[in-house]
Design brief:
The chain is mainly alpha-helical. The chain has a single domain, classed as Farnesyl Diphosphate Synthase. The chain contains 14 helices and two strands. InterPro entries: Isoprenoid_synthase_dom_sf, Polyprenyl_synt, Polyprenyl_synt_CS. It comes from Natronomonas moolapensis (strain DSM 18674 / CECT 7526 / JCM 14361 / 8.8.11). This is Bifunctional short chain isoprenyl diphosphate synthase.
Amino acid sequence: MEYLERRRALVESRLATVLEAAEPGAMTERLEHVSLSGGKRVRPMVALLAFEAAGGELVGEDGRGSAASAEAIDFAVGIELVHNASLVVDDIIDESELRRGVESAWTAFGYGPAMATSDGLLGEAFSLFGSDDRAMRTVAEAMVELGEGEATELVAQPTTEAEYMELARRKTGALFRAAAELGAIAAAADTYTIESFGGYAERVGIAFQIRDDVLDATAEADALGKPAGRDEAMERPSLVRITDLTPEEVNGRAREESEAALSALAAADPGDSPAVGYLEDLAEFVVVRGR
């Protein structure tokens, strides 16, 4: 676990530094409320692990001892900021008063300031991607997919399993894909390798979203750190709601995506390294996680 904790610490340290320097200064507390209140940091960890699995090396005590290493950490923090910005909007749409066990942004600050906070997070994120045109394109494409996913969920809700899977790919898989591709880009990987890592992460993201459906339907709010039963209350599409599948069968669908993720990772031919092992573990973990 020391291996993962060091990488998480690199993300946390750089994230705190970026937010502390955010302008205007009056916004800093709100940005920190959203981004420093906890979270699994799955997407930035995917970015760093993909960087190393693709041949990159995190060097120096703070991980920023080379241009590639510093870029990988910036990309990892940037994708986390994009994710946090999307959560602010999600909580407004869902009327969720809690996020990660604390007040959601709109509850703490009001609707207008919450939206401004989301914009501020995006601004800080894109300042971290500006060193590489491929990174900018990767994140922009992911945000298009994410926006289309959010719109679909609101105005054209899926009614079949196939439609739902496309929604999950856009709403959750796209940012996971971007995270892994950003890591591979920082490692100067070739196009095939970048796309293979992206395919792995997209499948992990879909499995993650499906597992979320199961947890929302079966877990207690205290265990989740956010309200449970929101899908039913908000009439929001989930595989549990729009199909006749039991939660156990839905979790089986998540397992299928996990296995497809592992196949995509193998196709990248990343060799043998601790980072690869942890990426494999992640594909397993997202199916069994409890929150």
